[in-house]
Each structure stands twice: as structure tokens, then as C-alpha cells.
Design goal:
The protein has one helix at 2-89. The protein is 98% helix and 0% strand. The chain contains 1 helix and no strands.
Length: 90
């Protein structure tokens, strides 16, 4: 019976070592995944900053184009009025 108990204890010890080894491997994988997640979060934040910057630049360009179009429309209208005035003056 002592031999059976010792054998069972050896098997239990071997099982515990194997389990401990598996847990260590899982912990390393978890650490690696956490590092990757942190890296991805940093990249996402960087991309969000770039998107905000691009949106701001697009808004500024749109505003500039809109202002230029307003000037062109006004000048076109003034030119048409000038042409009509010159035609009437003849």
C-alpha cells in the first residue's frame, strides 16, 4: 500500500508540474496578448489623431473653396451687370 501511495504521489507531482508548466505558458501568452492590445490601442489613438487632423484640414479647404466660389459668383454677377450696362449705353 505504501508503494501505491508513493506512486500516486509521484503521479500527482508530475501532473502538478505539467499543469504548472501549462499555466506558465498561458501566462506568457496572456502577457504577449496584453502587449499586442496595448500596441493596437496606441495605433488606434494615433489614427484617430490623424483622422481629426485630416477632418480639420478638409473643413478648412472646403471653407476656402466655398469662399472662392462665393467671390466668383459675385464677380460673375457684377460682370453680367456691367455687360448689360454697356449694351444699354450703346
Amino acid at each position: 500500500m505504501e508503494k501505491e501511495i508513493l506512486q500516486a504521489l509521484r503521479e500527482l507531482s508530475a501532473g502538478m508540474k505539467s499543469l504548472h508548466h501549462k499555466v506558465d505558458g498561458l501566462e506568457k501568452r496572456m502577457d504577449s496578448l496584453e502587449t499586442r492590445i496595448d500596441s493596437l490601442e496606441t495605433r488606434i489613438e494615433s489614427l484617430e489623431t490623424r483622422m481629426d487632423s485630416l477632418e480639420k484640414r478638409m473643413d478648412e479647404r472646403f471653407d476656402a473653396i466655398e469662399a472662392s466660389l462665393e467671390i466668383l459668383v459675385r464677380e460673375n454677377h457684377e460682370n453680367k451687370l456691367e455687360i448689360l450696362r454697356l449694351k444699354r449705353a450703346k
